[in-house]
Amino acid sequence: MHIMEGYLPLTWCIVWFVISFIIVAFGIYQIKKIVDETPESKALLAVSGAFMFILSSLKLPSVTGSCSHPCGNGLGAALFGPAVTAVLATIVLLFQAILLAHGGLTTLGANIFSMGIVGPFVAWIAYKGLTKANISSTIAIFFAAFLGDLLTYVATSFQLAFAFPAPTFSAALGKFLVIFAVTQVPLAIGEAILTVIIWDRLKAYKPKLLNKLGALAPNEA
Hints:
This protein is an all-alpha fold. The protein contains eight helices and two strands; from the N terminus they run ααββαααααα. It has a two-stranded antiparallel sheet with strand order 1-2.
């Protein structure tokens, strides 16, 4: 989903950068609050960021001017919420743009918006909704990771259609969605399974910390 350097018009680069900057700034505030209240959560923040970095670096080329890959944003969203995940995504995307030529600096705001804001927000809503209904956090994290991945690409499709609405916005959107869906649906399923494996390990070894972060279902606390 990383939109490559120089691909978006300058106007859209500025729009996505401004929106993303606001969310990331709030996320930095939330990280400070979480670390002050729960210092032992630093390791989980690092794990969430590393998980996102590794998965989102496994890219497949796409003809859309972007690429397909797992996102890894569901884990951080379930643990810390979407704003914190936006900060983690910013760090990941910045490193990838500079060190791996994956994405770009001019498109950084757009990529943060899709992978660091929209995807995690949907994942967080799905996770919180399911766990509040006393559905196992293992099942909840599967759907959170799956939907977080897919909605990241839906957001990217909208971004590309806004920038290149030819012949019409709806036609462009449909084209981008179809192209991404071919590779992204199976990738999202694989990512969800891998996230479940990591989550169950965390639940087994750090149940008290997960409970302290409010990341477990009420019947698991």
